Amino acid sequence: MIRSKIANDIYIGCTKQQLNIRRSKHIYDSKKNKRMKPIHKHINNNGGWSNYNFEIIEEKEYENLRDLRDAEKQLIQTYKNNDDYLLLNSRK
């Protein structure tokens, strides 16, 4: 999860990579216009990465990428239905 330090904005994502590698890729992509996603634009427009934390919600091994994506969708639905957060995921 990417969570704002100053607002209730969150982004849910899954990865098979180590967190520090995934974090570095998000930061790199947010600086390259061709690779920038809506989450990166939002972060850039709201004070930059210094205002956001990366947090692990769940650590679990999945047998395949489909199961991992299904788990991500379930987490997105959980947070989407919670009025305490502004979910920044645009594709779900």
Per-chain topology:
Layout: E1 2-4, E2 9-11, H1 19-30, H2 38-45, E3 52-54, H3 65-80, E4 86-87
Parallel strand pairs: 2-4
Antiparallel strand pairs: 1-2, 1-3
Offer a concise description of the structure:
The protein has 92 residues and is an alpha+beta fold.
How would you characterize this protein structure?
With 92 residues, this protein is an alpha+beta fold. It has one domain (2-87). The chain has 3 helices and 4 strands. The longest helix has 16 residues, at 65-80. The protein is globular and about 35 Å long.
Annotation keywords:
92 residues; alpha+beta; four-stranded mixed β-sheet
Shape: globular
Residue stretches low in confidence (pLDDT < 50, at least 5 long) are: none
Mean pLDDT: 91
Estimate percent helicity.
25-40%
* Largest beta-sheet details: 4 strands, mixed
Number of helices: 3
Strand content: 5-15%
Order of helices and strands: EEHHEHE
Q: What's the total count of β strands?
A: 4
Total tally of structural domains: 1
* Measured distance between first and last alpha carbons: 15 Å
Order of strands across the main sheet = 3-1-2-4
| Rg (CA only) | 13 Å
The secondary structure category is: alpha+beta
